[in-house]
Amino acid sequence: TVRYIETHYQETLDQKEIAARMGVTPEYLSTQFTKETGTSFSAYIRQYRIRQAKFILVNTDRKMQEVGVNVGYADPACRAGFSTTHRPMQERRKFGRSEPWTTSLPDTKII
User: Fold this and answer.
1) For the chain, first and last CA: distance in Å?
2) Contact criterion met (CB below 8 Å) for 65 and 88
3) Are the beta carbons of 56 and 70 closer than 8 angstroms?
4) What pLDDT score does 78 carry?
5) What pLDDT shows up at residue 61?
6) Phi, psi (5° rounding) for residue 104?
7) What are phi and psi for residue 15, nearest 5 degrees?
8) Is the whole model's pTM more than 0.70, yes or no?
9) Sign of the CA dihedral 56, 9, 71, 84?
10) How far apart (Å, rounded) are the C-alpha atoms in residues 111 and 41?
11) For labelling alongside 60, which of 31, 34, 43, 49 has CA 20 to 30 A away?
């Protein structure tokens, strides 16, 4: 599931749909995911997308709207909340172009 999220984070990710593909209930997926990763399914997706967005902001000159779409926030309402907490210039100044943002995640079992 973690691998699936990291491969498809730019798409709309629905827990029910992913559970159905795996042949389990959404409740079972949620319980197992939290047990294995230490975070909820939706929180993991959100955190992963934000890490990817920060990486893009630090290493490119893309606009926030484009970055939001690139990391799976196609809905303008989602991007609005994202852009108020993650401003491009702040992120670029904070991490600088010479200091790459790490996208590595803590070791987790893939369920």
Assistant:
1) 6
2) no
3) yes
4) 53
5) 87
6) -75, 145
7) -60, -40
8) no
9) negative
10) 12
11) 43
3-state class of 61 per DSSP? coil
The string of pLDDT tens digits covering residues 44-101 is 999 999 999 989 888 888 888 888 889 998 766 554 555 555 555 565 566 554 444 4
Maximal CA-CA distance, the chain: 45
Residues 6+ apart with CB under 8 A from 36: 108, 109, 111
Tokens of 26: 């959404």
Angle, helices 41-59/26-37, rounded to nearest 10 degrees: 60
For residues 65 and 82, give the distance between their C-alpha atoms in angstroms, rounded to a whole number. Answer: 10
pLDDT digit string (tens) for 4-47? 999 999 999 999 999 999 999 999 999 999 999 999 999 999 99
Distance CA 45, CA 11 (A): 11
